[in-house]
Amino acid sequence: AAPAYAPPPQPALVLPPILAEFPVAPDMRLADWIPDNLASPSGQGLVTLLHALVPVRTPQGRVIVFTSAVADRRKAVTALALARIAARSGLRTVLIDADQGAIVPAAPNAGMAAVLQGMPLPKALLRDRLSGAFVLSSMPAVWGASRTVDLIRHLRQSCDLILVDAAPAGAQGPWPALAGLSDGVVLFTASNGAQS
After folding, report:
1. Residue 45 and residue 60: Cα distance in Å, rounded?
2. What is the pLDDT of residues 47-79, one digit of tens each?
């Protein structure tokens, strides 16, 4: 008798890991509240995420991009809260707002654009009053500039963690440049009101 047909083995479907799951509302005031309330579900989720993204300090800072499939203010809330938690834990942290002013207003004469035009980086960085983290605004056009790569390399040398709050994947923004500059991407999805 002929052996029974058996389909060839298929490779296992590998899905990206869910690093943390936690409730976050689109209210920017939560970015102030969460770092002061690390025992909350959102605080615990962000601490877990931080440890997954930066398990140990390294000589070069890590560049982590935050994005989502659709425009969602919860991404900016989470990025800012995580930057604050990281800075308070002793990590030298810079948050780049690459989502057209979701966190800080973007302007052609400020932030990354100003640095690329010759302004000293320390003058362009904004210091977060609640944590000591630095925030840098950016506009989509700066990500195509050749000097952007040099700026990110400089930030890697002087910081432990560079978080980039990017526009949704596929939207106009930093994607072509960020593909080769980042160490990881955190993709936000909404599921039953929770941000993953």
Report:
1. 25
2. 988 998 898 888 899 999 988 887 878 888 999
Considering the entire predicted model, what is its pTM?
0.83
Rg (CA), the chain: 19
Distance from C-alpha of 75 to C-alpha of 24, rounded to nearest angstrom: 9
**Tokens 């960020």 map to which residue?**
178
Q: What CA–CA distance (Å, rounded) separates 144 from 108?
A: 14
- Is 43 strand, coil or helix? helix
Hey, what are 134's tokens?
Answer: 């630095």
Q: What share of the chain is helix, strand, coil (3-state, %, to 5)?
A: 35, 20, 45
What are 93-125's pLDDT values in tens digits?
Answer: 999 998 877 788 777 778 888 998 899 999 999
DSSP 65: E
Please say whether the dihedral angle defined by the alpha carbons of residues 19, 192, 14 and 164, taken in this order, is positive or negative.
negative
Count other Cβ atoms within 10 Å, centred on residue 73.
15
Bridge partners (DSSP) of residue 166 are 98
Decide: 19 and 53 in contact? Cβ < 8 Å.
Answer: yes
| Closest CA relative to residue 164, chosen from 49, 62, 64 | 64
